[in-house]
Each structure stands twice: as C-alpha cells, then as structure tokens.
Amino acid sequence: MNENTSGIISKIWSFCHTLRDDGVSYGDYLEQLTYLLFLKMADEYSKPPHNRKLDVPKQYNWESLTAKSGAALEVHYTTLLRELSHAKGTLGQIIQAHRHDRQRAVDVDGCGSQRKDL
Prior knowledge:
Blueprint: H1 3-21, H2 26-45, H3 62-66, H4 70-84, H5 89-96, H6 114-117
Helix pairs in contact: 1-2
C-alpha cells in the first residue's frame, strides 16, 4: 500500500471516529461518508487531468462544503442532500437513498480540517 493510500485510509477512519463519538450509528456514518467521498471524487474528476463534465451543481459541489463551517455547514449539507436527491440521472439515484427523517444531522463540521485535506 502506498503512502497516499495509507493517508486517505487514515483520514477516513478519523472521520468514522469523529462521527461515532458524536453518537452516529455505523450505518449512518457509512452512508454519510459515501456521500462525502462521492462529492470529493466528483470534484477530483472535474479537474485536470480528467476534466470531466459532471452534473453536480456548483452550489452543491465539494468546494461548497469546504467553504463553510459550523451551523452554516450543517444547514448547507442538509440542503445539499435534499436537493441532490431530486436530481435526474445517476446523481439523484446515488443521493436518493438519503433518509430525510433523520432525527439529527451528522456532524460534518466535526470532521474539521480533515474534510479539506481529503
């Protein structure tokens, strides 16, 4: 396993510990990490050398998450999931499984600067 892969795995486990310590169940944090990783990968593929045109609206892309913190991030993330779940095509299908009846949103901000470094 190369150093880059080890670093990514370490950051993901750190996210898991943050969410678990915040009382989020395994299934819920796995779901949330899947969404976050999807958005991060979409961001990576939209840049050189890939330069792919992706259907993630700019107001809901990875950079929109890294630009916010605290309560503003929580509101934005909840809105992002709700809006993207209604998108047409694969994007909507990926996010559609999101459960809107959650008692509380996960603490995406609790993952802190690690979110920006992923």
